[in-house]
């Protein structure tokens, strides 16, 4: 027991350091809205500065001045990064922010390796060998210093954010940047100060931890992971939960050491547990108002030009056959990195899931393939297949959290889980054969010996073929329906669920395919030497794969090719170090790559590949090349200028297509006893209603009456709703939103929830697509292409959307966007249509047209329509019946003219 207590007390040093770094992360997040993945690396640089100056290291200063300078270096680095990079990222996508801080981490890491090397340095306790005794256990002065500093900074930060103007400005900027800007709050003073504070805390933590863990570039940089896990629990805002979890983590790890638990388990399991707890507390769909509106990275069309493919393939094969073995090795590196980059494109570029696990997946694929060869003696192809399949299974496990966690939190979760894979499998001597490694048999495919030692060119050609097939598969995916699903989920999860896309299914599909590509890369490369080695599949490898793919262009296969060609050990690096004889330049290349990541994130976050495209079109403009008139140009001439008044609405000649199998007048949607509460607020209280095919029922009521919440409850967007909901005679109470949509419940949202970065056509096609799970695999080979069908064509014509079909939705005016939302809804052929304030923001004549359209949804489409609307004129002119809600309860219902005359209704609207 005493020993256990002692180990717990020893763990307070590490725990305090986690808490300190995590506090810095919280300060930076509260001050600038950015999660700083380079926090550990900043601390590491501050620690090296301290070690350089400290008399116990390689300097001559006593501890306190050296500590002060080390902390000052951390502070300066934090401020510098804000000034040079972060202040330009305020309107960037979440991914650009994550990659920028990861890029800074890589930069600092490579600078430290260049200057200090990787050998560990140890120090004696900084504050002497003094100690105090607590209940028989010993606490050293160093541990005490860490704890006191953590406590003091915890109190200081609480007061700063609660009591000072700077803290209040920071809260205002985080919660509502537009409103804060409107009252003149500038983000920069809070940004600079909190980044400086973050840097100081990181350096403090790093320096105080040197006597405990030693000083190496990698270990201190990776302290960011447990610190992130601690911060995650307090959602990066809570100061005391962060400190408590940081300390608990350190203590738990120390106690586990007492039980002689495997070091891999100690370093990964505790915070994997925290991550699991956070995942369980997440939600399957984001709540109302939680959908991101920031611009997402651009994505290519997925079109493939056979001539380009043929030229590249020819060049690659010629190079690998004609040039030296070092070139073959560089080509193999390029192909393997290219496959990893393709895996990032699928999961991050297309599906929008910031995942940092590609190297762990590749390592696992390599591990299974190598063991299948060495232990089971299976043939090359079977081993590669097994490696790929097992990576897919692991990918589904790592992707599991993505169903409930999103954005930057997912980056932390995947980082944590991939560190667990690295520690528990790839670095375990019992698994990987220790110093003997895993001896594998030679690669033979269809009778051709591919042994890379004897035939490096053959193996290189094989790798290039696999890369080319992977690239074609990813392009196919983009053009198929599963690619559209990914993009819909990336753009708007609530919108995707409303048209029947399984958000969880799409995310898992993307994770599986991405893991398959990474696993394939690993499985093939396991055979490049006679002894397979897994030590290179580190978290840093995952981070640089993500960063360089984003630099290349995360939405473009060409971006992956760029990343592969310029990767470490790839063809460009080989050319520079071998052909130009500049091998000493390697360390500088690593530093240059880190700088490139930062530059691209600030100036062209869509990727370098788009810069090339822009240069090509500039050249095409300046060179006297005869160009064909473009279809777009012809279209522009034919179409009236955007924004011009089109005169009176033309008479409609086509009707909306009738939904099959719905008989007018039969009940479609029946709800009883619906009740929704948010904490102590009862938003909807015992509401019952029945909707029949062909009728329009209005729902009116003052602001906050519970109208939207009722719609959410009926359509499955409010999972905690009580009561029964029947749709066409079937109890659908337990079904999630996307399954209700598939049964024929269509809805619109107050803020539309369109897929803003897709065209109107792609928005409609997403609703029209089949929901087959098979398409995730089929699209890789045979993407199914289709266009609007007859019914949606008619809807588009009625809604006058033809000229907008290929316009990106974000570029349309609000009225057109509303029409696009209705076209997307009609594509679902819904039997029940639930419209949430669809006429808001329309002018008088637009409102009349919209009212006619809502009627047409009932009269022509044959659907049962529930119309939530504030405009009483629209309600009176359109609805057969009206339900009035007030404080969540039905206070009246019946024909509009009667209901709107009732005194209770007038009182609810106008007050007594
Ligand atoms: N996520 C939430 N958390 C807590 N309270 C909520 C949440 N969503 C809605 N509410 C509360 O539930 C009640 C009903 O809100 P709801 O948005 O459904 O009303 P509404 O009639 O649609 O209002 P409006 O006409 O302004 O859109 C309000 O008191 C609102 O503050």
From TrEMBL:
SMART domains documented for this protein: AAA (SM00382)
Domain of life: Bacteria
UniProt keyword annotation of Oxidoreductase present: no
Disordered: annotated span: 633-662
Molecular-function GO term, any one: ATP binding
Domain ABC transporter: 669-912
Cellular localization per UniProt: Cell membrane
Key words of the record: ATP-binding, Cell membrane, Membrane, Nucleotide-binding, Transmembrane, Transmembrane helix, Transport
PROSITE patterns linked to this entry: ABC_TRANSPORTER_2
UniProt-listed Pfam families: ABC_tran, BCA_ABC_TP_C, BPD_transp_2
TM segment ranges: 6-27, 63-86, 98-117, 143-161, 232-252, 264-284, 304-323, 335-364, 376-398, 410-427, 459-477, 545-565, 585-602
Topology relative to the membrane: Multi-pass membrane protein
Entry-linked InterPro entries: AAA+_ATPase, ABC_AA/LPS_Transport, ABC_transp_permease, ABC_transporter-like_ATP-bd, BCA_ABC_TP_C, LivM-like, P-loop_NTPase
Low complexity bias: start-end ranges: 633-647
Keyword Lipoprotein applies: no
UniProt main location, coarse: membrane
The protein, known as: ATP-binding cassette domain-containing protein
Organism of provenance: Actinomadura rugatobispora
């Amino acid at each position: 027991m005493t020993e256990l207590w002692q180990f717990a007390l020893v763990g307070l040093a590490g725990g305090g350091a986690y808490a300190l770094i995590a506090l810095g992360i919280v300060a930076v997040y509260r001050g600038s809205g950015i999660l700083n993945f380079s926090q550990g690396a900043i601390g590491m640089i501050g620690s090296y500065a301290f070690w350089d100056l400290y008399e116990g290291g390689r300097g001559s200063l006593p501890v306190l001045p050296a500590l002060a300078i080390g902390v000052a270096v951390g502070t300066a680095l934090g401020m510098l990064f804000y000034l040079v990079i972060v202040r330009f990222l305020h309107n960037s996508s979440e991914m650009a922010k994550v990659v920028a801080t990861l890029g800074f981490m890589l930069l600092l890491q490579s600078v430290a390796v260049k200057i200090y090397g990787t050998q560990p340095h140890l120090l004696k306790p900084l504050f002497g060998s003094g100690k105090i005794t607590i209940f028989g256990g010993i606490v050293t002065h160093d541990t005490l210093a860490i704890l006191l500093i953590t406590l003091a900074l915890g109190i200081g930060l609480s007061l700063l954010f609660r009591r000072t103007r700077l803290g209040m400005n920071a809260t205002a900027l985080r919660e509502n940047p537009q409103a804060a800007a409107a009252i003149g709050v500038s983000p920069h003073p809070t940004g600079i100060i909190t980044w400086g504070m973050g840097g100081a805390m990181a350096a403090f933590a790093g320096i105080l931890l040197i006597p405990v863990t030693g000083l190496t570039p990698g270990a201190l940089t990776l302290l960011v992971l447990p610190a992130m896990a601690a911060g995650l629990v307090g959602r990066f805002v809570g100061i005391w939960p962060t400190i408590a979890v940081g300390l608990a983590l350190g203590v738990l790890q120390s106690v586990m050491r007492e039980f002689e638990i495997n070091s891999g388990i100690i370093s990964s399991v505790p915070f994997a547990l925290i991550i699991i707890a956070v995942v369980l507390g997440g939600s399957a769909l984001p709540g109302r108002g939680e959908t991101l509106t920031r611009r997402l990275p651009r994505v290519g069309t997925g079109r493939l030009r056979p001539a380009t493919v043929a030229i590249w393939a020819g060049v690659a094969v010629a190079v690998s056959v004609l040039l030296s073995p070092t070139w073959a090795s560089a080509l193999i590196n390029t192909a393997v990195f290219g496959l990893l980059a393709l895996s990032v494109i699928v999961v991050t570029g297309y599906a929008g899931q910031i995942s940092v696990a590609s190297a762990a997946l590749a390592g696992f694929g390599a591990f299974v393939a190598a063991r299948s060869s060495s232990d089971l003696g299976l043939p090359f192809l079977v081993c590669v297949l097994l490696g790929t399949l097992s990576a897919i299974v692991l990918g589904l496990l790592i992707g599991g959290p993505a169903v409930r966690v999103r954005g930057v939190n997912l980056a932390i979760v995947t980082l944590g889980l991939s560190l667990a894979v690295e520690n528990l499998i790839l670095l375990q001597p019992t698994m990987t054969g220790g110093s003997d490694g895993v001896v594998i048999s030679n690669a033979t495919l269809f009778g051709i010996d591919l042994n890379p030692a004897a035939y490096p060119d053959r193996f290189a050609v094989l790798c290039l073929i696999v890369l080319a097939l992977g690239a074609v598969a990813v392009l196919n995916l983009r053009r198929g329906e599963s690619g559209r699903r990914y993009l819909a989920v990336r753009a708007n999860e609530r919108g995707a669920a409303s048209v029947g896309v399984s958000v969880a299914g799409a995310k898992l599909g993307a994770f599986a395919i991405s893991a398959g590509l990474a696993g394939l890369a690993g499985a093939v490369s396991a055979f490049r030497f006679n002894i397979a080695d897994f030590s290179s599949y580190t978290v840093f490898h995952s981070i640089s794969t993500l960063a360089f793919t984003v630099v290349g262009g995360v939405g473009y296969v060409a971006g992956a090719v760029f990343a592969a060609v310029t990767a470490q050990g790839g063809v460009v690096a080989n050319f520079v170090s071998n052909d130009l004889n500049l091998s000493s330049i390697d360390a500088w290349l690593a530093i240059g790559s880190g700088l490139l990541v930062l530059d691209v994130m600030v100036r062209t976050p869509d990727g370098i590949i788009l810069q090339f495209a822009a240069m090509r079109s500039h050249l095409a403009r300046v060179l006297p090349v005869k160009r064909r008139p473009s279809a777009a140009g012809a279209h522009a001439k034919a179409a009236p200028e955007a924004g011009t008044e089109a005169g009176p609405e033309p008479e409609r000649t086509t009707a909306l297509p009738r939904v099959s199998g719905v008989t007018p007048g039969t009940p479609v949607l029946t709800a009883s006893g619906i009740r929704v509460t948010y904490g102590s607020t009862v938003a909807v209280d015992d509401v019952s209603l029945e909707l029949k095919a062909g009728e329009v029922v209005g729902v009116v009521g003052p602001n906050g009456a519970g109208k939207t919440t009722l719609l959410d409850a009926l359509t499955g967007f409010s999972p905690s709703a009580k009561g029964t909901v029947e749709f066409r005679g079937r109890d659908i109470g337990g079904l999630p939103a996307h399954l209700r949509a598939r049964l024929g419940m269509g809805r619109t949202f107050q803020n539309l929830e369109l897929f803003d970065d897709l065209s109107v056509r792609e928005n409609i096609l997403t609703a029209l697509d089949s929901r087959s799970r098979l398409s995730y695999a089929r699209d890789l080979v045979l993407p199914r292409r289709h266009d609007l069908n007859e019914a949606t064509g008619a809807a588009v014509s009625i809604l006058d959307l033809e000229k907008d079909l290929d316009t990106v939705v974000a570029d349309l005016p609000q009225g057109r966007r509303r029409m696009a939302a209705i076209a997307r809804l009609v594509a679902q052929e819904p039997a029940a249509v639930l419209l949430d304030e669809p006429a808001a923001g329309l002018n008088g004549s637009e409102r009349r047209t919209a009212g006619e359209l809502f009627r047409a949804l009932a009269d022509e489409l044959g659907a049962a329509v529930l119309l939530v609307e504030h405009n009483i004129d629209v309600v009176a002119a359109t609805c057969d019946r009206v339900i009035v809600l007030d404080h969540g309860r039905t206070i009246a219902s019946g024909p509009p003219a009667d209901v709107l005359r009732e005194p209770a209704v007038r009182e609810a609207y106008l007050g007594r």
